[in-house]
Write a structure and sequence with these properties.
This protein is α/β, with parallel strands linked by helices and 336 residues long. 40% of the residues lie in helices and 9% in strands. The chain is built from 15 helices and six strands. The longest helix has 18 residues. InterPro entries: UDG_Type-4/5, Ura-DNA_glyco_family4, Uracil-DNA_glycosylase-like, Uracil-DNA_glycosylase-like_sf. Belongs to the uracil-DNA glycosylase (UDG) superfamily. Type 4 (UDGa) family. This is Type-4 uracil-DNA glycosylase.
Length: 336
């Protein structure tokens, strides 16, 4: 009797292959199935005659003298031949069976079971079934910043700034810098954006620029602890301290306007070109904006005096401009 050949994957047509791919079973189904190896079978041995016994005895003596050989494995009884032959016949039948017939079970072929109704199905693959609420959490619609901050308190506004993802700056920040100072406040000082130290510590103007700003405020009798609240137009640090982009300013401006509405400062000192252009809605240079008093109209119709001056970081690079910045501070302090 000949042994069965190793089982191979059934032939599938292109449509069946698409179905297997759709249900994620293409590789599992089409890989070669494990080879079914029937147990070794030996023919039953008849009782030896006297002549055969003597020949076997002499042969065993010769073999033992040449080299020691372990005793041969016991032969399988005659009643084991029938089950082994049945297993071999089933294996051959499974190989020769056409692909359109009943699909073998996973236990016999080593592959996951595929219902014949799916394997033989015709037509285009079905569209994926939409996931239910239980399968996938539904993302809440994003509320625009201007709408989200409309009725926020100062503490709620701080929490919104810390969790803000309205623009791409949130991806590279360490801390969002809400602002720091006295509440209520007499002066509101508005810078442009946090720097490296501000991003690291989460507070505005804490580096060399902050030290210079504190000295400038102290020269006119002001302190961030008792009189001044300091913040920025942009609450997250731009990469490499680059200039803020228009879309970043547009995303962050509602936070600043809500801060102004809640703090109700007596006057606003704006430091830097981007901050001045944002609050005044102009593209004029800082040289043409400083040296005079502007009026910022709030949403409730009130007008707050606004003074424009140079950013402390610019003054560190251009010490000759400190005299003009001093004039701006005196102008702000003389206002009633």
């Amino acid at each position: 009797m000949s042994l069965p050949t190793p089982a191979t994957a059934p032939r599938v047509n292109p449509l069946q292959r698409i179905w297997l791919r759709e249900i994620g079973m293409e590789r599992l189904w089409l890989r070669p199935a494990p080879v079914v190896t029937p147990p070794a079978v030996t023919a039953p041995v008849a009782a030896p005659s006297a002549d055969m016994a003597s020949a076997v005895t002499s042969q065993a003596t010769v073999s033992k003298a040449v080299s020691p050989v372990p005793p041969a494995a016991p032969t399988i009884a005659a009643n084991a031949v029938a089950p082994a032959a049945a297993v071999a016949q089933d294996a051959v039948a499974a190989v020769e069976q056409p692909a359109q017939a009943v699909v073998p079970t996973g236990r016999a072929s080593g592959r996951p079971t595929i219902p014949a109704s799916i394997l033989n199905r015709s037509g285009p693959p079905p569209r994926p079934v939409p996931k239910t609420v239980e399968d996938e959490a539904v993302e809440a619609p994003r509320v625009p910043v201007a709408e989200a901050v409309k009725n926020a308190t100062l503490d709620e506004l701080r929490e919104q700034v810390v969790a803000c993802t309205a623009c791409g700056l949130c991806q590279g920040r360490r801390h969002a810098v809400f602002g720091q100072g006295a509440t209520p406040t007499r002066w509101l000082v508005v810078g442009e954006a946090p720097g490296e130290q501000e991003d690291r510590q989460g507070h505005p103007f804490v580096g060399r620029s902050g030290q210079l700003l504190d000295a400038m405020l102290a020269a006119v009798g002001m302190s961030r602890d008792t009189d001044v609240f300091i913040t920025n137009v942009i609450k997250c640090r731009p990469p490499g301290n680059r200039n803020p982009k228009p879309e970043e300013i547009a995303s962050c401006s509602p936070y600043l306007m809500r801060q102004i509405a809640l703090l109700k400062p007596e006057r606003i000192l704006v430091l830097g070109r981007f901050a001045a252009q944002t609050l005044l809605g102009t593209d004029a240079t800082i040289g043409s904006l400083r040296g005079r008093v502007h009026q910022l109209k709030t949403d409730d119709g009130a007008e707050i005096p606004l003074i424009v001056s140079y950013h402390p970081a610019y003054l560190l690079r251009s010490p000759s401009e400190k005299a003009r910045a001093w004039q701006d501070l005196k102008l702000a302090s003389r206002m009633v």
